[in-house]
Design brief:
mainly alpha, about 475 residues, 22 helices, globular
Amino acid sequence: MIDSEQKNSKIIDGFVLCISLSLLAASAAAALYTGTGRTLFADFFRILSSPGPLITDYFGVGSLAATFLNAGLCGLAMWAFMALLPGPSHVNTFAGYFLVIAHAFYGLNFLNMWPCFLAPFLYLRIRRLDYNENLHICMFCTCFSPFVSELLFRYTQGQSWTPGTVTLTVTGILLTLCFILVLAFVAPAILPGTRAWHKGYNLYNGGLAFGMLGFFLFNLLYRTVGVDAPAATVFDNPVYESFGCSYRGFGYAYFLLLFAGCVTAGYFLNDRSFRGLSRLFTDTGYESNFAGKYGMPLCLINVGIYGTLFLVYVSLVERFTSGAGFTGPTFGVIFASLTFTAMGQHPRNVWPIYAGYLMLFVFANAFNILVGGEVGWTLSTQGYINSVAFATGLCPLVGRYGVVPGIAAGMLCASLAPATAALHGGLMLYNGGFTAGITTLILLPILEHYLPNPRASMTQHIDLRDMMTLNENAKRKGK
């Protein structure tokens, strides 16, 4: 078991390093592709100094190259902590890493992430908890990064703030310090409690927990005291506009190479075979640690296959409906879709979620044909592209209750998607996970009432088998 854990840890650390370096290499390629090499660092500074509530497109604020540079630096920083802190890396930090680099394309940057990331270390220090074992909590807390940028750059200046300017105030710095202290001691404390609400059926536990906290903080800091709600930062970007505000070709090239590399690496690390993959694809995903049960090589193959599936979904909805293209948030959510590929998600237990989004869209259009109205969204509207990536965190519902409840979960999640960001002002980046959590709170009691005996997970089967073995051994000893 120890050897297996160490092997998984080495693969996780190596994989995270490779992804981070690929982002930096993509930054150099993007500078050549868009001709923005000379303005790279100016574009990067604009990203660092701009508020970034949902959904702020860093391709527009900065540039394609500067955004990949931002993601690469954030990724390398996470890798450094994973590699330098004593102890093995695990699937929770693997998930946290993907969420950090995903949001580095819209809302999180190499400046505003640090207060949120470092704040929980104070809590861990006082409670004498292991830093490495709880590193994922620090990564998850970076979802509050937009709050930091708002408090530092815009909150105390009101209408006098203009895009592209950096003016720090004493009040803004003090408010940021107070915010960090609240985050340090409240965020880690609420994570375990919210898990009891959804009973493990929402993989994005942090989305529900931090969505509630973000709801309170936003209303306290804005609604209660009468400060104007933040808006996404927008700059005129002639280079981005010349590409139709969609770097489709670059996105295809980068992600197809990345996912092919994941499958190839997993294949060779798995003794040049796909052996065991069919077992992973039949797992319910409920309370599952794929790395512990099947090994990280198969998880890498799952990353590649699952990522390709989501890329195909994005490509199809962009092709057949009008909406956002390969923007910064779209690049980001492709990474976000991979978050739990080592602990719950695989193609077989997520496709009903996609189907739910499609069925709601078909229903909405059919209804409006009857009443003579018009649907105000499509499957490629940015908010719906983003939300479906996080809605797949409901895959344990599919695994344990079946396809039809999974489709219902997708439809419900899609219907809630437009409303939830307003609850926290777009200042909490895990809005999709928050929506998925609310979906679980609504749907799970209904499922438990009408389907009280869901299919048991493989984990439970294994535990039951182990208990029977222990009982048999005890009986033999008794004889």
